[in-house]
Specification:
A hairpin with a 6-residue loop joins strand 1 and strand 2. Helices cover 56% and strands 9% of the residues. It has a two-stranded antiparallel ribbon with strand order 1-2. It has 2 domains: 7-35, no CATH class; 39-78, no CATH class. It is mainly α.
């Protein structure tokens, strides 16, 4: 959904220059931030990269301590779930 800012919010956002604008929903008291779309996209990309890095690091840690599933068993499980032949 895309909503248009009212004049008060637009003026407040423009007054911040390149920064963000903190707004509070008067009904729920929920705090939100209005930021430039490009800044938001870059922040979300950075967050995804960090989460992927953390997941890979956790997988490596598990592998190093002998946790997890051997690769051939993992592939067999994937083939079974997808309904493929168990042949290699």
């Amino acid at each position: 959904m895309i909503a248009k800012l009212n004049e008060e919010l637009a003026a407040a956002l423009n007054a911040t220059g390149e920064g963000e604008l903190e707004v509070v929903d008067p009904l729920t008291q929920r705090t939100c931030f209005l930021v430039d779309g490009e800044i938001h996209r870059r922040a979300m990309d950075a967050l995804r990269r960090q989460e992927e890095h953390d997941a890979i690091a956790e997988g490596i840690r598990q592998m190093e301590v002998g946790e997890g599933e051997p690769l051939d068993e993992a592939f067999a499980d994937i083939r079974s779930r997808l309904g493929f032949s168990q042949e290699r």
